[in-house]
From TrEMBL:
GO molecular function: transmembrane transporter activity
Compartments where found: Cell membrane
Family annotation (PANTHER family): MULTIDRUG RESISTANCE PROTEIN MDTO, P-HYDROXYBENZOIC ACID EFFLUX PUMP SUBUNIT-RELATED
Protein name stated in the entry: Fusaric acid resistance protein conserved region
Length: 683
């Protein structure tokens, strides 16, 4: 309840102006339900202009498709109520399936198309007096026009009047995460303090959220929209740093614990940490660090010990870290130059496509099936009861199921929806039964709506209260639509808004509770297994390996999706997350190894058998001790063969990749020990 800031107050005023503009246009055009227009502005109003545009345009496109489908279904099946309800549920289920497979801005199109059909059809069925094709078509088109006016009004007001930009928010958050990552690695190198999984997960979550938020940038009103490709490339480069830091952290802790970290390397780690703390390091200082790292490398032979290959592994990752820090700094300067028109908008390196992000088809199919069942159940309840105002129940079930069931915390979200809908009933009833009858001009209506809409907009601008306030305001605006239907009386209000609406939300909540209780453990286990399947496919892939940056993005995104689901594991959560980070590093090291394949083959080393064994290993869910021993022996043989390479080119990189795979795959195994090699000539 703190005092509103100027930004929050401005957002509240803009919400009010957008709602009143939409209502005025709808009234002037003589649309049958003008109050649907301001309700639409409430749905799409966001604090950032780019998000409003994307959300509004997605609503327009989704509404268009939903309207066409509604007209077809009503005309063809209006006489078959149960069949029509089943087709509505099926439409919602199909739209939900495709929306869950999308992690980009166009996912909202499917969501809107999904609930537009039940909103239009159920509202027409609840109001229809006679079966007439023209009436059905007119009503469906009118719903699209009313909501469309609301979306356009919101886009205009929020984009033209002191807009808050997505671009500046994305860049500020990227700068913040860059600073956090630097502090994270500096603490590891200077203090030799293990920080656990918290900074890893925080960086992974923020970068994943930024990648999705950046999808709004091309539609923003800021200059940053011209640098969208460079901004996404910087996010990719920051993502690559996460597995590097986790690997460095584990290497430093292992060497320190065993007392095998030489004083030279302790001195060098302090120098690297100090260099990372600098805001604008020079290229000369980075080159000096690379030379110091190479100078401290041990001489690698076929007799090199585990401690020596660990030092090579650490040195290789430190060199990559220095280069990555340079690349990120250069990319950040390129973004500034691009905003000033001094650099091309498109970088030479193509950023990783958003289509590479995790897609859970099994979960999408299960959620869609549960949506069909829940909506059909609510529809049958309405049909069997003969309750005229009961059409609101399956409508609310459809809307809120589509909007919230995909989230891991869907039960908590739907509970909050029900709670804030109940909170909105008293002021909604007051506006419907008192205010609406007390106004005789549009100006007086604006004056009476101003306090609730502006105050609601202030709380919508605050992240902590945005969700609940949006539901609260939707409850008020949806109630005012009863005035359009000549149902502005206490009986209709109690029937439609109080009972039917709350029953619909409750049915969605009960269904979510049943579904989530059945789904949570199964989904968690399946997602954990999907990481192993990904590595298995990666090791089995063709001779052309994927880019390292793409693999890192996919692995980090998958990890950020899985991690929130592990809360049910209790004390085993940290071990599970540590194992996931280990598997992520294995996948990245496999790609590094595959990129060196041709060089290794020219030195007589074929990595194909090892890749096949790794693929088979991750393709299985359990392993016998004999299989583990055979796998470990094959990795050690390959490691010793690389240590004995006649050519030093790529030798250290291959040693680092194999050492990382061995350590992450068998963290508790005995240290690598070189065997005595017997050459054919000697035999």
């Amino acid at each position: 309840m703190q005092k509103p800031t100027w930004g929050e107050l401005l957002f509240g005023v803009k919400c009010f102006l957008a709602a009143m503009l939409a209502l005025y246009i709808a009234l002037r055009l003589g649309l049958p339900r003008p109050f649907w227009a301001p309700m639409a502005t409430c749905i799409v109003s966001q604090s950032m202009a780019g998000s409003v545009y994307v959300r509004g345009m997605s609503r327009l496109v989704g509404t268009l498709f939903g309207t066409v489908a509604s007209i077809f279904l009503l005309i063809a099946f209006v006489n078959y109520t149960v069949l029509l309800c089943f087709l509505i549920a099926l439409w919602v289920g199909v739209c939900m399936y495709f929306s869950m497979l999308k992690r980009t801005t166009d996912a909202y199109v499917y969501t809107v198309a999904g609930f537009t059909v039940p909103v239009i059809i159920f509202s027409v069925l609840g109001d229809i007096n006679f079966i007439n094709v023209q009436y059905i078509t007119d009503m469906a088109i009118a719903r699209a026009e009313e909501t469309g006016i609301g979306f356009v009004s919101a886009i205009l007001i929020h984009s033209l009047i002191f807009p808050r930009h997505v671009g500046s928010t994305v860049i500020n958050q990227m700068d913040a995460v860059r600073k956090d990552i630097r502090q994270w690695i500096t603490t590891i190198l200077k203090d030799n303090t293990p920080l656990g999984n918290a900074p890893r997960l925080n960086a992974a979550r923020i970068l994943t959220d930024l990648r999705v938020l950046s999808a709004n940038l091309p539609h923003d009103t800021s200059n940053e929209k011209w640098a969208v490709a460079n901004i996404r490339l910087l996010q990719d480069r920051l993502t690559v740093v996460i597995p590097l830091i986790t690997s460095i952290e584990d290497s430093v802790m292992e060497l320190k614990k065993a007392g095998k970290l030489p004083e030279y390397w302790e001195y060098l780690l302090d120098n690297i940490a100090s260099w990372l703390e600098e805001d604008n390091p020079t290229p000369e200082s980075a080159q000096w660090l690379r030379e110091r790292i190479r100078h401290g490398l041990p001489e690698i032979t076929q007799s090199s010990s585990w401690d020596e290959v660990l030092i090579v592994h650490l040195a290789n990752n430190l060199e990559k870290l220095v280069t990555s820090r340079e690349n990120c700094a250069d990319q950040r300067r390129t973004i500034d130059d691009c905003l000033k028109g001094k650099a091309p908008a498109a970088p030479k390196t193509i950023p990783v496509s958003l289509n590479q992000l995790t897609k859970d088809r099994h979960l999408a199919l299960l959620v869609s099936a549960s949506a069909i069942f829940s909506i059909m159940l609510a529809s049958l309840f309405w049909v069997a009861s003969g309750w005229n105002a009961g059409f609101c129940a399956p409508m609310m079930t459809s809307i809120f199921y589509l909007s919230f069931i995909r989230n891991d915390n869907s039960v908590a979200a739907l509970k909050k929806v029900l709670l804030f809908t109940i909170y909105s009933l008293l002021p909604a009833g007051f506006y419907l039964l008192v205010v609406m009858y007390s106004t005789h001009s549009f100006e007086s209506l604006m004056l009476l709506f101003a306090p609730i809409v502006i105050i609601g907009g202030i709380f919508m601008a605050r992240p902590a209260t945005a969700f609940g306030t949006t539901i609260f305001m939707m409850g008020i605006w949806s109630t005012t639509t009863m005035y359009d239907l000549d149902m502005a009386n206490a009986t209709s209000f109690m029937n439609g808004q109080v009972f039917a609406q709350c029953i619909g939300i409750t049915m969605a909540l009960i269904s979510a509770m049943v579904f989530r209780s059945f789904d949570a453990e199964w989904t968690t286990k399946r997602l954990l297994a999907s990481v192993s399947d990904e590595i298995s496919r990666l090791a089995k892939s063709a001779r052309t390996p994927p880019p390292v940056i793409q693999t890192s993005v996919r692995m980090i995104d998958r990890l950020s999706v899985i991690a929130p689901r592990l809360s049910g594991l209790g004390s085993g959560k940290d071990n599970a997350i540590a194992s996931l980070f280990g598997q992520m590093r294995i996948g990245v090291n496999i790609v590094y190894l595959m990129h060196m394949r041709s060089r290794l083959e020219r030195n007589g080393i074929d990595i194909a058998p090892l890749l096949k064994v790794i693929s088979d290993w991750f393709g299985k869910r359990s392993h016998e001790p004999s299989e583990q021993d055979a796998m470990l022996e094959q990795i050690d043989d390959m490691l010793q063969s690389v240590c004995n390479m006649p050519s030093r080119i790529r030798q250290n990189s291959a040693i680092a990749a194999l050492t990382g795979i061995r350590r992450d795959l068998f963290p508790d195994a005995s240290p690598y020990y070189p065997q005595t090699l017997v050459f054919k000539e000697a035999v």
